[in-house]
Design goal:
The protein has two domains: 3-170, Aldehyde Dehydrogenase, Chain A, domain 1 (3-Layer(aba) Sandwich), CATH 3.40.605.10; 172-310, Aldehyde Dehydrogenase, Chain A, domain 2 (3-Layer(aba) Sandwich). Helices cover 39% and strands 16% of the residues. The protein contains eleven helices and twelve strands. Helix 1 packs antiparallel against helix 3, helix 1 (3-18) crosses helix 6 and helix 2 (22-35) packs antiparallel against helix 6 (111-124). The radius of gyration is 21 Å and the shape is globular.
Length: 335
């Protein structure tokens, strides 16, 4: 297949996903949520919309034109995460568009939706059947892209040490406030915090706020998300962590569905959000440098802070926003 033929297949995939029949979409959603209760209709729709926004001819052509992809076809293993819907799709797309074969270990938390996408892609372009394989054991691969925890990454790094690899570890994201944000900005920030229940590496788990700023004042702007507490697993996490804070007499702010706690750690537990004060810009820069290796994404109002994106855009990455800032296509072009 030529690169244009591969791109055409992904364009048709986007068109097909956009026009899924209502009955078929409902049946698929029931299967997805039966497998993973975190993958609600709203979250699956958000993930699909994000993918559809990539699968546009002009966007794909511009992206691919930046790379030299005429190398020999190789078999690339992909270990997919399952924290949010279709989080491994970008890796699959990169492998196939670069002309390689994909040997995939699909997450057990996201197999229904991932396999649906794979089957749909093969239906639209049958020649992809020889380029996609799902497996439990990633043997006989010539390169690997693996996403997991800090613990699993040590295993991946050892096991795949002799072949080209991208090994991703735990990462999280943070928001930077200057203390002058308006209500609309803070409402947009809520989307970065609460989409996918906060389970994604691009979800905000930490706020950096200026000293003297009444951080609890943010909570009133997040009331539209109070229905999260109706999700039993989210509610269980909220109740558990609130009881821990109370037992340990740790101060916190609470709006009955999110717990706001002062903490220097970057990663907060589910249904929690950490905050940390900074005194001036140099102090803020020092704190961000401290966590640099763990930060996936930064957000600020209108993207005022260098290197950040606007509030509300954390979970809307562009097609060339690579995880861990490692250029996957460049890796595949050279593997």
């Amino acid at each position: 297949m030529t690169i244009d033929e591969r791109i055409s297949a992904f364009i048709r995939l986007g068109e097909s996903l956009k026009s899924l029949p209502v009955a078929g979409r409902q049946e698929l959603q029931e299967k997805i949520e039966n497998q993973n209760v975190w993958f609600t209709k709203e979250n699956v729709d958000r993930a699909l919309s994000g993918i559809i926004s990539w699968l546009i001819e002009a966007k794909l052509q511009k992206w691919i034109s930046s790379y030299q992809l005429a190398g020999k076809q190789k078999t690339i293993g992909i270990v997919m995460a399952g924290n949010i819907p279709l989080v491994g799709f970008h890796d699959l797309m990169c492998v196939l568009l670069s002309g390689h074969k994909a040997k995939i270990k699909v997450s057990s938390s996201d197999s229904v939706l991932t396999n649906f996408i794979i089957d749909k892609l093969i239906e639209l372009e049958p020649r992809f059947k020889d380029s996609i394989e799902t497996t439990e054991f990633l043997k006989h691969v010539e390169g690997i892209i693996a996403t997991g925890s800090d613990n699993s990454s040590r295993y991946f790094e050892y096991y795949f040490r002799s072949i080209p690899h991208i090994i991703r570890k735990n990462r999280s994201s943070c928001a930077i406030l200057m203390g002058e944000e308006d209500a609309s900005s803070l409402q947009n920030l809520a989307l970065d915090v609460f989409s996918y229940f906060g389970l994604g590496c691009r979800n905000i788990s930490k706020l950096f706020v200026p000293e003297g700023f009444p951080v609890e004042s943010i909570l009133k702007h997040w009331d539209p998300y109070q229905t999260l507490i109706n999700h039993h697993k989210y509610a269980n996490n909220y109740d558990y962590h609130k009881s821990i804070l109370l037992m340990n007499q740790i101060p916190f702010f609470d709006n009955n569905f999110i717990l706001l706690t002062k903490n220097t750690s970057l990663v907060s537990p589910l249904a929690n959000l950490y905050y940390e004060n900074y005194s001036h810009q140099d102090d803020l820069k020092e704190k961000l440098n401290r966590d640099q290796e763990k930060i996936q994404c930064m957000v600020s109002a209108k993207g005022w802070y260098n290197g950040s994106v606007e509030f509300g855009q954390a979970q809307s990455p562009e097609i060339n926003d690579y995880s861990d800032n490692i250029d996957t296509m460049s890796f595949l072009a050279k593997v």
